[in-house]
Amino acid sequence: MAGEGILFIDDDAAGRELSLFNLGAAGYQVEGAADGERGFALFSAERHHLVVTDLRMPKLSGLDVLARIKRQAPDVPIIVITAHGSVEAAVQAMRAGAYDFLEKPFSRDELLLCVERALERRLLALENRALRLRAAGVEREIVAASAAMQQLLHTADRVARSEASVLVTGESGTGKELVARRIHARSARADGPFVPVNCAAIPGPLLESELFGHERGAYTGAVKARPGRFRKAEGGTIFLDEVGELPLDLQGKLLRTLQERMVDVLGSDQPVAVDVRVVAATHQDLRAQIQAGAFREDLFYRLNVVELPVPPLRDRPEDVDVLVRHVVAQLAPDRDLSVPEDLLAALRRYSWPGNVRELENACERLVILCDGEILRLADLPPPVLQSAAPAVDEWPPLPPDGLSLVDLERRVIERALQLKGGNVSQAAVYLKIPRHVLAYRLEKYGIGRG
Questions:
Q1: Pair 266, 214: CB distance under 8 Å
Q2: Which of 61, 60, 63 is nearest to 97 (CA)?
C-alpha cells in the first residue's frame, strides 16, 4: 500500500516528526500538522487516503477533526491516538467512526501495522462499492484513450467528492449520462439512489408532477398520491437530462428547489424537505437560450457550478479503435471477431454526427452481417462507407521516378471491388463509370469478381 497519502495530526512535535519519518521511510506520502485546526485545513480527500490524529489537541480536538472529515470524506479511514489508559476516549472515537486507535507510546511496527490494515480495509470497501454499483447497473464503464476524455474523467472524479451541482454538456450520443452515473458512483451518495429524468420525453403538463410529486385529487386523474422523482432520489442523485427542455414556469420551481432544498408538492400547502444532489445535462447552448429568453439565467448558474463538456467523437478519433473493440467484444462475447486495420481507418475518417451511440449501432450492424471471423468493410452503414475512401489530399505523393498508370488503374479497380464486396454494379457506381466499361476492364486485367 506504499505510495498512499497520509495526514498525521499531533501537537507533540517530537512524536509527530518521528511518526512522519517512519511512515515516509515505509514509502507513504506524508503531511503533518501541529493542531486540529491546521490539520483539517490541510486535509484533501484527493491527496489523503488515511488520517491519523491525536484526540487531545488545542484549537480543534481530534473528535472534532474526526466528525468534520467523516462528513466531507466518509471513505477515508481515521486512526486516533489516545493517552495511556484513555479507554473511554478510544471507545467514544470508535463510536464516532474511527477505524482504530493507537495508545501512546506506540512503536514503529504498531503504527505501520495499523496503517496498513486501515488502508487495506479502505481499498476493499471501495472495490465492494464499485462491484455493487456495477451489479445494480448504476455505473457503466466509460472506454476512452484520448487525452481529452481522460482529463474529463479526472475532473469528474474530483467533482464527485463535493456536493456541487454539475452541468454535463455535449452533443447527443456522447455519453453524458455515463458521466453523470460516474459522478454519483464516486460520491459520498453512492449508496443512495440514482434517479434519471429525461425532461424532453415527458409532456410539460405532467413534468411538474413527475419531478415534484402530487397529492391525491391534486388534478383530474390523480387517483393516488405520488412522491415525485426528487423525493425518490432522497439521499442520492437526480439526473435531469435535457434540462434545456424545461418549460419556463418549471424552471422557477426547480430554482426554488435548488435554493431551499424543498419541493412544492402539487395539491399540498406544505413544502417537503429533500436531500438530493442535482446533475443536469443538455445538448443545447443554454447561454444562447438565456439570450433568447428561453432559459433562466439564475437557474443556469445554480446548475452550472461545475460544467463538464463532453467532446464529440470526431474530435477524439483515438477513442474509435478502443470503442470499436470494446463494443464488438460486448456484442459477440462468444465469437473471436477481429477488426481489420482498413475497417478501423474507415471508422476513424467518419465524422460520427451521432457520436458514440451511432458508432455502437454501426458495430452492431457489422457483427450481425459478419458470417466469418473478420468484420468486413463492405458491411458498414452506407453513410460511413461513403466516407471510407480517403480524400484526394490524403493520397500519397507521386514517386519521382514515375509510375505505371495501368498498374494504378488495376489497383484502384481491385480496391473498389473489395470495398463493395465484389459487387460489380456498386463498384461501377463508386468509380463513376458505366458497368460495361468496368466489366471490360475486369476482363482486360484478369481481375476476378468474387
A1: yes
A2: 63
pLDDT at 395 over 70: no
pLDDT in tens, 66-109: 998 888 778 889 999 987 667 788 888 888 889 999 988 899 99
pTM score over 0.70: no
**Angle 442-448-450 from CA coordinates, rounded to 5°:** 125
- Measure the CA–CA gap between 370 and 379, rounded to whole angstroms: 8
Peptide bond into 434 cis (omega under 30): no
Strand partners, 167: 280, 307
Give SS3 for 381. Answer: coil
Weakest mean pLDDT among 128-137, 220-229, 265-274, 338-347: 128-137
All three cell numbers of 299, joined, read 437557474
Angle (CA) 204 164 245, round 5°: 20
The secondary structure of the chain in percent helix, strand, coil, rounded to multiples of 5, reads 50, 15, 40
Query: Looking at the 3D structure of the chain, how many domains does it have?
Result: 4
Task: Looking at the structure, tell me whether residues 441 and 427 fall in a common domain.
Answer: yes
Of 93, 98, 94, 56, residue with least CA distance to 79: 98
User: Rounded to an integer, what distance in angstroms lies between the CA atom of residue 138 and that of residue 352?
Assistant: 27
* pLDDT band, residue 411 (cuts 50/70/90): confident
Amino acid identity, residue 383? P
Query: What is the full DSSP assignment across 173-214?
Result: TS-HHHHHHHHHHTSTTTTS-EEEEETTTS-HHHHHHHHH-B
Cell of 349: 475518417
Q: Which three cell numbers stand for residue 360?
A: 455502437
Compute the distance between CA of residue 13 and CA of residue 21 in angstroms, rounded to an integer: 12
* Same domain (yes/no): 273, 202: yes
302, 180: one domain = yes
pLDDT of residue 133: 59
Rounded to a whole number, what is the distance in angstroms from the first to the last CA of the chain?
60
**Considering the domain boundaries, does residue 305 fall inside one?**
yes
Give a yes or no: residue 237 inside a domain.
yes
- Residue-wise burial string across 191-217, b where 16 or more C-beta atoms lie within 10 A, e elsewhere: ebbbbbbebeebeeeebbbbbbbbbee
d(CA 23, CA 15): 12
Name the residue range of residue 108's domain: 5-131
What grid cell was written down for 258? Answer: 435548488
Look up residue 226 and give its DSSP letter: B
How is residue 118 written as a grid cell? 486501515
